Fold this sequence. Notes:
Mean pLDDT: 87
Distance between the termini: 29 Å
Helix content: 25-40%
Radius of gyration: 16 Å
Number of helices: 7
Strand content: 15-25%
Shape: globular
Low-confidence stretches: 9-14, 19-41
Strand order of the largest sheet: 7-6-1-3-2-8
Order of helices and strands: HEHEHEHEEEHEEHH
Amino acid sequence: MKHLITFMLAAAVGLGSCAQNNARPAKNETKTSTANITNTMATTDTATLANGCFWCTEAIFEQLEGVISATSGYTDGQTKNPTYKEVCSGETGHAECLQIVYDPSKISFDELLEVFWKTHDPTTLNRQGNDVGTQYRSGVYYHNDEQKEKAEHYKAELDKSGAFDKPIVTEIKPFSVFYPAEDYHQQYFENNENANPYCSIVIRPKVDKFKKVFKDKLKKD
């Protein structure tokens, strides 16, 4: 764990953040069914992380070796089966997040946290870059006591080290619920890189930088 903290502190800089895209596609008002993704195999575990626009974060986490799936969605809110439009209003209480199912024999929760801390700015309250609103808050929604302890430990160590210029505002809360986002949000970067300028202007540079920093953790082609 000490080795991981040292590595994290040496490169604890954000890889950029999403900017609010005014040309996002029309919202799909069809409500998706509630789906609390649960582990169906003893060899997998689940992490729920919120670090800004899920178009960007999904494009990063799904490339990590050991990550089985990274589903864009909404967590920690009070409205059941919210739509993207409702979440963007800021009135549902949800955060845009990823529900990550992973193989702990290939990638640890510590390593997922390492990527989490380095790929967004955890010091900006309810904001990532030009994306502003409670839905863009930074959060770790733990599924067990071990995840809670690790998230709190690294947050405290990063604050103590002065790795960031301002205090970390990432909320660490127990996981409550997860709703998958509408279908058009899933694999958004992969499906829209050549169609939406937002992908090439905002997401592509962030993904390229991520690949350089974490090249040893990427899935093999």
